[in-house]
Design a protein that fits this description.
The protein has 296 residues and is an alpha/beta fold. Helix 1 packs across helix 3 and helix 2 crosses helix 3. It starts with a helix and ends with a helix.
Length: 296
Protein backbone atom coordinates (compact mmCIF):
# COMPACT_ATOMS: atom_id res chain seq x y z
CA UNK A 1 0.00 0.00 0.00
CA UNK A 2 1.36 3.40 -1.04
CA UNK A 3 0.72 5.61 1.98
CA UNK A 4 1.74 8.69 0.02
CA UNK A 5 -0.98 7.91 -2.54
CA UNK A 6 -3.54 7.86 0.27
CA UNK A 7 -2.48 11.36 1.29
CA UNK A 8 -2.70 12.51 -2.33
CA UNK A 9 -6.19 11.04 -2.68
CA UNK A 10 -7.31 12.78 0.54
CA UNK A 11 -5.97 16.12 -0.73
CA UNK A 12 -7.91 15.77 -4.00
CA UNK A 13 -11.11 14.62 -2.27
CA UNK A 14 -11.00 17.47 0.25
CA UNK A 15 -10.20 20.15 -2.36
CA UNK A 16 -12.54 18.62 -4.99
CA UNK A 17 -9.82 19.52 -7.49
CA UNK A 18 -6.68 17.88 -8.89
CA UNK A 19 -5.16 21.30 -9.60
CA UNK A 20 -5.76 22.64 -6.08
CA UNK A 21 -4.41 19.42 -4.55
CA UNK A 22 -1.27 19.64 -6.68
CA UNK A 23 -0.69 23.23 -5.54
CA UNK A 24 -1.20 22.27 -1.90
CA UNK A 25 1.15 19.30 -2.14
CA UNK A 26 3.73 21.15 -4.23
CA UNK A 27 3.75 18.60 -7.05
CA UNK A 28 2.57 18.51 -10.64
CA UNK A 29 -1.02 17.76 -11.62
CA UNK A 30 -0.01 14.69 -13.68
CA UNK A 31 1.76 13.31 -10.61
CA UNK A 32 -1.43 13.71 -8.58
CA UNK A 33 -3.53 12.05 -11.29
CA UNK A 34 -1.10 9.14 -11.57
CA UNK A 35 -1.03 8.56 -7.80
CA UNK A 36 -4.83 8.48 -7.60
CA UNK A 37 -5.12 6.23 -10.64
CA UNK A 38 -2.66 3.70 -9.18
CA UNK A 39 -4.52 3.78 -5.86
CA UNK A 40 -7.82 3.06 -7.60
CA UNK A 41 -6.21 0.21 -9.50
CA UNK A 42 -4.85 -1.31 -6.30
CA UNK A 43 -8.31 -1.12 -4.67
CA UNK A 44 -10.11 -2.21 -7.81
CA UNK A 45 -12.77 0.48 -7.38
CA UNK A 46 -13.24 4.10 -8.45
CA UNK A 47 -12.60 6.53 -5.59
CA UNK A 48 -13.30 9.79 -7.41
CA UNK A 49 -16.04 10.77 -9.84
CA UNK A 50 -14.52 13.06 -12.48
CA UNK A 51 -16.31 15.35 -14.92
CA UNK A 52 -15.01 18.24 -17.02
CA UNK A 53 -16.19 20.66 -14.31
CA UNK A 54 -15.96 18.88 -11.00
CA UNK A 55 -14.36 16.16 -8.90
CA UNK A 56 -16.21 14.41 -6.08
CA UNK A 57 -15.65 11.26 -4.03
CA UNK A 58 -17.62 8.17 -5.01
CA UNK A 59 -19.39 6.26 -2.24
CA UNK A 60 -16.27 4.16 -1.77
CA UNK A 61 -14.09 7.27 -1.89
CA UNK A 62 -16.20 9.08 0.71
CA UNK A 63 -15.99 6.10 3.06
CA UNK A 64 -12.21 5.92 2.60
CA UNK A 65 -11.81 9.67 3.19
CA UNK A 66 -13.87 9.50 6.39
CA UNK A 67 -11.53 6.81 7.71
CA UNK A 68 -8.35 8.49 6.50
CA UNK A 69 -8.98 12.07 7.64
CA UNK A 70 -8.50 11.57 11.42
CA UNK A 71 -5.36 9.47 10.88
CA UNK A 72 -3.84 11.95 8.44
CA UNK A 73 -4.64 14.82 10.79
CA UNK A 74 -2.85 12.96 13.60
CA UNK A 75 0.17 12.36 11.36
CA UNK A 76 0.33 16.01 10.27
CA UNK A 77 0.00 17.21 13.86
CA UNK A 78 2.69 14.81 15.08
CA UNK A 79 5.06 15.78 12.27
CA UNK A 80 4.54 19.48 12.85
CA UNK A 81 4.95 19.06 16.61
CA UNK A 82 8.26 17.28 16.02
CA UNK A 83 9.44 20.05 13.69
CA UNK A 84 8.39 22.88 15.98
CA UNK A 85 9.08 21.36 19.39
CA UNK A 86 12.01 23.68 19.98
CA UNK A 87 10.76 26.66 17.99
CA UNK A 88 7.94 29.19 17.91
CA UNK A 89 4.49 28.10 16.64
CA UNK A 90 4.28 28.66 12.89
CA UNK A 91 2.33 27.73 9.80
CA UNK A 92 -1.25 28.02 8.57
CA UNK A 93 -4.01 27.51 11.13
CA UNK A 94 -7.33 26.70 9.44
CA UNK A 95 -10.49 27.59 11.37
CA UNK A 96 -14.20 27.24 10.52
CA UNK A 97 -16.10 29.89 12.48
CA UNK A 98 -19.83 30.51 12.87
CA UNK A 99 -21.00 33.83 11.39
CA UNK A 100 -22.57 34.81 14.72
CA UNK A 101 -19.44 34.24 16.84
CA UNK A 102 -19.08 38.00 17.21
CA UNK A 103 -16.87 37.88 20.30
CA UNK A 104 -14.34 35.76 18.38
CA UNK A 105 -14.57 37.57 15.03
CA UNK A 106 -14.74 41.14 16.28
CA UNK A 107 -10.99 41.65 15.84
CA UNK A 108 -9.09 42.28 19.09
CA UNK A 109 -8.78 38.63 20.12
CA UNK A 110 -7.39 37.50 16.76
CA UNK A 111 -5.23 40.58 16.31
CA UNK A 112 -3.69 39.99 19.73
CA UNK A 113 -2.95 36.37 18.84
CA UNK A 114 -1.24 37.32 15.56
CA UNK A 115 0.83 39.96 17.33
CA UNK A 116 1.98 37.38 19.89
CA UNK A 117 2.65 34.68 17.28
CA UNK A 118 3.72 36.44 14.06
CA UNK A 119 4.79 33.21 12.34
CA UNK A 120 1.25 31.79 12.40
CA UNK A 121 -1.08 32.56 9.48
CA UNK A 122 -4.82 32.31 10.12
CA UNK A 123 -7.06 30.88 7.38
CA UNK A 124 -10.63 31.53 8.57
CA UNK A 125 -13.78 30.33 6.81
CA UNK A 126 -16.89 32.05 8.20
CA UNK A 127 -19.80 29.68 7.68
CA UNK A 128 -22.89 28.29 9.37
CA UNK A 129 -22.88 25.03 7.43
CA UNK A 130 -22.49 21.94 9.58
CA UNK A 131 -19.72 19.58 8.48
CA UNK A 132 -16.90 17.42 9.81
CA UNK A 133 -13.99 19.82 10.33
CA UNK A 134 -11.50 16.94 10.43
CA UNK A 135 -12.63 15.49 7.11
CA UNK A 136 -12.60 18.99 5.59
CA UNK A 137 -9.01 19.62 6.69
CA UNK A 138 -9.59 22.25 9.38
CA UNK A 139 -7.53 22.44 12.55
CA UNK A 140 -10.43 23.67 14.69
CA UNK A 141 -13.82 25.36 14.62
CA UNK A 142 -15.82 27.89 16.64
CA UNK A 143 -19.52 27.22 17.29
CA UNK A 144 -22.14 27.38 20.01
CA UNK A 145 -21.36 24.83 22.69
CA UNK A 146 -24.76 23.13 22.47
CA UNK A 147 -24.13 21.88 18.92
CA UNK A 148 -20.55 20.60 19.33
CA UNK A 149 -20.05 16.83 19.19
CA UNK A 150 -19.29 15.14 22.51
CA UNK A 151 -15.98 13.66 21.31
CA UNK A 152 -14.43 17.09 20.74
CA UNK A 153 -12.22 19.14 23.04
CA UNK A 154 -14.04 22.45 23.66
CA UNK A 155 -12.49 25.67 25.00
CA UNK A 156 -14.79 28.63 25.80
CA UNK A 157 -14.20 31.79 23.76
CA UNK A 158 -17.14 33.86 25.02
CA UNK A 159 -19.38 34.44 28.00
CA UNK A 160 -22.85 32.82 28.09
CA UNK A 161 -24.99 34.18 25.28
CA UNK A 162 -28.52 35.56 25.04
CA UNK A 163 -30.79 35.77 22.02
CA UNK A 164 -33.19 38.66 21.62
CA UNK A 165 -35.86 40.08 19.35
CA UNK A 166 -35.25 43.68 18.25
CA UNK A 167 -36.89 46.29 16.06
CA UNK A 168 -36.57 49.98 15.19
CA UNK A 169 -38.56 52.42 17.34
CA UNK A 170 -40.30 53.67 14.17
CA UNK A 171 -41.55 50.17 13.32
CA UNK A 172 -42.90 49.61 16.83
CA UNK A 173 -44.62 52.99 16.82
CA UNK A 174 -46.29 52.07 13.54
CA UNK A 175 -47.12 48.40 14.14
CA UNK A 176 -47.24 48.09 17.93
CA UNK A 177 -45.10 46.20 20.45
CA UNK A 178 -45.72 42.43 20.74
CA UNK A 179 -46.54 41.34 24.29
CA UNK A 180 -45.89 37.63 23.71
CA UNK A 181 -43.81 35.64 21.19
CA UNK A 182 -47.00 34.02 19.91
CA UNK A 183 -47.95 37.42 18.44
CA UNK A 184 -44.88 37.45 16.15
CA UNK A 185 -46.54 35.73 13.16
CA UNK A 186 -48.80 38.79 12.88
CA UNK A 187 -45.75 41.07 12.56
CA UNK A 188 -43.32 41.73 9.74
CA UNK A 189 -40.30 39.58 10.62
CA UNK A 190 -36.77 39.34 9.23
CA UNK A 191 -35.54 35.75 9.53
CA UNK A 192 -32.29 33.84 9.22
CA UNK A 193 -31.36 30.50 7.66
CA UNK A 194 -27.90 28.88 7.73
CA UNK A 195 -27.80 27.87 4.05
CA UNK A 196 -29.87 27.89 0.84
CA UNK A 197 -32.64 25.33 0.75
CA UNK A 198 -33.01 25.12 4.53
CA UNK A 199 -36.08 26.43 6.39
CA UNK A 200 -35.89 29.65 8.40
CA UNK A 201 -34.58 29.35 11.95
CA UNK A 202 -37.33 29.01 14.56
CA UNK A 203 -37.05 31.78 17.16
CA UNK A 204 -36.36 30.38 20.64
CA UNK A 205 -37.72 31.84 23.88
CA UNK A 206 -37.88 30.96 27.59
CA UNK A 207 -40.74 31.32 30.06
CA UNK A 208 -41.30 29.81 33.46
CA UNK A 209 -38.03 27.91 33.23
CA UNK A 210 -39.06 26.20 30.00
CA UNK A 211 -37.91 26.71 26.42
CA UNK A 212 -40.25 27.03 23.45
CA UNK A 213 -39.89 28.21 19.87
CA UNK A 214 -42.02 30.12 17.39
CA UNK A 215 -42.11 29.56 13.63
CA UNK A 216 -42.45 33.11 12.34
CA UNK A 217 -43.38 33.80 8.72
CA UNK A 218 -40.49 36.07 7.64
CA UNK A 219 -41.05 38.79 5.07
CA UNK A 220 -37.33 38.43 4.36
CA UNK A 221 -35.13 35.36 4.95
CA UNK A 222 -31.35 35.57 4.56
CA UNK A 223 -28.10 34.06 5.79
CA UNK A 224 -26.52 37.53 6.14
CA UNK A 225 -26.83 38.96 9.64
CA UNK A 226 -25.61 42.34 8.41
CA UNK A 227 -28.54 42.58 6.01
CA UNK A 228 -30.95 41.61 8.81
CA UNK A 229 -29.63 44.43 10.98
CA UNK A 230 -29.79 47.02 8.21
CA UNK A 231 -33.38 46.08 7.33
CA UNK A 232 -34.43 46.20 10.98
CA UNK A 233 -32.77 49.60 11.52
CA UNK A 234 -34.61 50.87 8.43
CA UNK A 235 -37.94 49.88 10.00
CA UNK A 236 -38.43 46.71 7.94
CA UNK A 237 -39.62 44.59 10.85
CA UNK A 238 -38.62 42.58 13.90
CA UNK A 239 -35.49 40.44 13.73
CA UNK A 240 -33.86 37.94 16.07
CA UNK A 241 -30.29 37.03 16.96
CA UNK A 242 -27.45 37.18 19.47
CA UNK A 243 -27.31 40.12 21.86
CA UNK A 244 -23.65 40.74 20.94
CA UNK A 245 -24.63 41.12 17.28
CA UNK A 246 -27.07 43.94 18.07
CA UNK A 247 -24.93 45.76 20.66
CA UNK A 248 -23.89 48.67 18.42
CA UNK A 249 -27.35 49.60 16.99
CA UNK A 250 -28.89 49.11 20.45
CA UNK A 251 -26.35 51.50 21.98
CA UNK A 252 -27.15 54.09 19.29
CA UNK A 253 -30.88 53.74 19.85
CA UNK A 254 -31.44 52.51 16.29
CA UNK A 255 -32.92 49.27 17.64
CA UNK A 256 -34.72 48.40 20.88
CA UNK A 257 -35.31 45.00 22.44
CA UNK A 258 -38.80 43.54 22.59
CA UNK A 259 -40.11 40.49 24.48
CA UNK A 260 -37.29 40.84 27.01
CA UNK A 261 -39.21 38.81 29.62
CA UNK A 262 -38.99 35.80 27.31
CA UNK A 263 -35.23 35.91 26.74
CA UNK A 264 -32.85 33.50 28.50
CA UNK A 265 -29.14 32.74 28.52
CA UNK A 266 -27.35 29.60 27.32
CA UNK A 267 -23.73 28.38 26.87
CA UNK A 268 -21.73 30.58 24.53
CA UNK A 269 -19.16 29.92 21.81
CA UNK A 270 -16.35 27.40 22.02
CA UNK A 271 -13.21 26.63 20.05
CA UNK A 272 -13.40 22.90 19.37
CA UNK A 273 -11.03 20.34 17.89
CA UNK A 274 -10.63 16.55 17.98
CA UNK A 275 -8.95 14.83 20.90
CA UNK A 276 -5.34 14.22 19.93
CA UNK A 277 -2.21 13.09 21.67
CA UNK A 278 -0.18 15.61 19.72
CA UNK A 279 -1.85 19.00 19.37
CA UNK A 280 0.00 21.14 16.82
CA UNK A 281 1.95 23.98 18.48
CA UNK A 282 0.05 26.60 16.44
CA UNK A 283 -3.28 25.30 17.77
CA UNK A 284 -1.93 24.92 21.29
CA UNK A 285 -0.78 28.54 21.10
CA UNK A 286 -4.31 29.67 20.18
CA UNK A 287 -5.83 27.62 23.00
CA UNK A 288 -3.39 29.11 25.52
CA UNK A 289 -4.06 32.60 24.15
CA UNK A 290 -7.81 32.13 24.58
CA UNK A 291 -7.40 30.82 28.12
CA UNK A 292 -5.17 33.76 29.03
CA UNK A 293 -7.67 36.25 27.64
CA UNK A 294 -10.52 34.56 29.50
CA UNK A 295 -8.50 34.62 32.72
CA UNK A 296 -7.71 38.32 32.28
Amino acid sequence: MDLNALAVFAAVAEARSFRAAAETLGVTRPAVSQAVRKLEQSFGVALLQRTTRSVAPTEAGAALLASLAPALAEIRAAAQAAQERHGAPRGRLRLAVSTIAESFLSGPLLAGFLQEFPEVQLDITVTDEEFDIVAAGYDAGVRLGEVIEQDMVAVPVSAPQRQMAVAAPAYLARQGVPAHPRELPAHRCIGWRPAPGLPPYRWEFFHGGREFDVAVAPEVTTNDMGLMIRLAVAGGGITFGMADTFSAPLARGELVEVLQDFSGSFPGFYLYFPTRKNVAPKLRALVDHLKARRGA
